[in-house]
Amino acid sequence: MKTYRVRLLLFFYLLIGFNIITFAEWTHWRGPFYNGSSIEGIKYPTKFDKKTNVKWEFQAPGSSASTPVVKSNFVFLSSIDERDNSSNLSKLLAICLDRTSGELIWLDHAGSGYQPGGNDGNEYQLDSRSNYASPSPVAGDDEVVFFYGNGDLVCYKFNGQRKWSRNLQEDYGDFCFQWTFSASPTIFEDALYIPVLQRDQKVHQRGRDGAESYLLRLNLNDGSTVWKVTRPTSARMESRESFSSVIPHDGNLLVAGGDFLTNHKPSNGTELWRWGTWNMGHRQEWWRLVPSPVVGADRVLICAPKGNPVYAVNINAKLASPMLAWDSQGKRNVTSDVPTPLFYDESFYVLSDLKKTITKLDPNTGSITWECSLPGKYKWRSSPTAGDNKIYLMNHNAHVYVVSTLDGAILHSVKMGDEYDDSTRSSIALSRGALYIRTNKILYCIEE
User: Fold this and answer.
1) Which has the closest alpha carbon to 290: 130, 95, 401, 64?
2) In what order do the strands lie in the sheet with 390-394?
3) What predicted TM-score, i.e. pTM, was given to this entire model?
4) 1-64+346-448: what fold?
């Protein structure tokens, strides 16, 4: 009996240890819980700069809005190669670094060479605000998947061996987006999910009339399509477009865009319910959606674009169907056009890129706990992340702020980018006590 108890206790501690390690990783651009938060019980730095508490730094070959992801002893990031003067999509890079030292383990030219129509000869972007490397990679148990705005989808083993690759535009037709497509993929229960919520007509000579929005589930082993389902919408024009990610919750998949929030079965993509709309009567034709949905305390937070309110949808299992719990009408600073909100320590945190504030909200009522004004002239397009009772924020100028979750006090501010950086949009990743801060040119690993 004593031996049995010892073995059972050992198994219990091993299981706890495995879970701690698993949730201390940052495998998705919104972290291990898909909501911007890190696991509790791990300390993260408060004070740092370009020299202080820098464990290592990596000179990136190009800029990107993507967030690095961390798994096991590896850090993965997407990039373009601004040093390469060739005229094809080999400029799209998949990069793997050693988590401990920051040394380059492997780098692959992931671009297929696919060039959608109407790109005016620009080989790695369609517009001036972003490039094809804007989607963040996602890591599974022993593979990492990179997605790029031209439709390239490439899966690698952690050792750099390419498992499979394909191009979604080649397979399903050119994307119909006003801006460069940049939704990040999601791995959930050993499958890969990608939403392509697009308009149904050509835009700037790109895409095709009659295009449908769709969701994809792919096999992680070979990249084959498990299912592809159409996601209908009554939205119009740019309001059909979404740049958000699929967010798993309670065994199902949440998808936001095209004026609706929908919930889907992972096994076959069947739509279980939909809620909406924030675009009453679908009158607004230019309400593309950027923030992903965020879940907490039986609420899903959805951000209507361009200075409009956020909406908290009640998805309590006791309800027959989802219903609106509250919205931020009358709270002028509680709005987000681009950043995805954060859920941490039983509260929502909404970063407003338009109002330059971050606000802590009660998830049940929407009441404001505190509000913090953010200084400076630059926009706040990176999404907030949190751990150790601290929120980490970064603006376009790569100016990083550390804000207390307890009272909204600014604990630290530091400029991590170059003087004239003005397009830094990567979110700060947290893993095992380290911060991963990506500026236009450098990825910093910060650790006390």
Assistant:
1) 130
2) 385-387, 390-394, 399-404, 410-415
3) 0.93
4) Lipocalin (2.40.128)
Q: Please state, as a whole number, how many other Cβ atoms lie within 10 Å of the Cβ of residue 61.
A: 17
Whole-angstrom Cα distance, residue 265 to residue 224?
A: 19
Angular region, 193: left φ>0, alpha ψ -120 to 50, beta rest = beta
Q: How far apart are CA 34 and CA 171, in angstroms?
A: 28
Asked whether this chain's domains 1-64+346-448 and 66-289 adopt the same fold, the reply is yes
Task: State how far the Cα of 220 lies from the Cα of 194, in Å rounded to an integer.
Answer: 12
φ, ψ of residue 29 in degrees (nearest 5): -65, -20
Write down the pLDDT at residue 21: 63
Give the rounded distance of the alpha carbon of 135 from its chain centre: 8
244 near 256, Cβ under 8 Å?
yes
What does each C-alpha distance from 312 to 242, 243, 265 come to in angstroms? 19, 20, 22
Give the SS3 label for residue 197. coil
DSSP string for residues in 378-422: S---SPPEEETTEEEEE-TT-EEEEEETTT--EEEEEE-S-TT--
CATH number given to 66-289: 2.40.128.630
SS3 content of the chain, % helix, strand, coil (to 5): 10, 35, 55
HEC per residue, 105-155: EEEEECCCCCCCCCCCCCCCCCCCCCCCCCCCCEECCCEEEEECCCCEEEE
CA 427 to chain centre: 8
How far apart (Å, rounded) are the C-alpha atoms in residues 106 and 37?
Answer: 28
Kindly list the domain boundaries of the chain, sorted by start residue: 1-64+346-448, 66-289
- Over the chain (448 residues), the average pLDDT of each successive run of 10 is 39 48 87 96 97 97 94 96 65 96 97 71 63 96 96 97 97 93 96 98 89 98 98 97 97 98 98 96 95 98 97 92 96 97 98 97 98 93 97 96 98 93 92 96 96
CB 55 within 8 A of CB 102: yes
